[in-house]
Amino acid sequence: MDESEDVPKDFIKLRSEKLSVDEVSELVVSPYCGAVSVFIGTTRNNFEGKKVIHLEYEAYTSMAESEIKKICRDVRQKWPSIKHIAVHHRLGVVPITEASVIIAVSSPHRAESLEAVMYCINILKASVPIWKKEAAEVAVLATGSDAPVASVPLLTLGTNTLFLLKSHVS
Fold first, then answer.
1. Phi/psi at 6 (5° precision)
2. Is-contact 116 79, C-beta < 8 A?
3. Span 85-126, pLDDT tens digits
4. CA dist 122 to 31, 101, 106, Å?
5. What number of CA atoms fall less than 13 Å from residue 163's CA on the CB side?
6. Are strands 9-15 and 84-90 parallel, antiparallel or unpaired?
7. pTM
8. CA–CA separation, 76 vs 70, rounded Å?
9. Between vectors from CA 167 to CA 139 and to CA 52, what angle results, nearest 5°?
10. Beta bridge partner(s), residue 46
């Protein structure tokens, strides 16, 4: 393969299907690079003391893709040796432990790709119109009655929190 066949590429994808670390990292492999750095953001089971059931992502897709392209351009200006960049973000419901975002960057040496991956995730979270909702359990105490009281997911979007409670009275 000659240099012209391995021109720098950006791979951007927003999708509702499960993300594959192998697929994303393979996109950026190049015989001209000695480093592939990967960031995997996963859904954890807690947030601010609440038990998280899952995350849900929504996006203004065309604008999000445009903003991610800008991030890729910025990365190439800051680190000209970067070869390939892949940014895949999941939309819809993301269960606990599954990947929400995978970013992979290749470069001749590790320092550039590691710095570029960190830059990508930080700017993506700060500026790309992808919104995260946390569905969390709500602890509810029965107050003197034997009626069963159940909780349903709590949704948090930014600083707005919606509590949904359900109880059965016999």
1. -120, 55
2. yes
3. 999 999 999 999 999 999 999 999 999 999 999 999 999 999
4. 28, 12, 18
5. 7
6. parallel
7. 0.80
8. 10
9. 30
10. 51
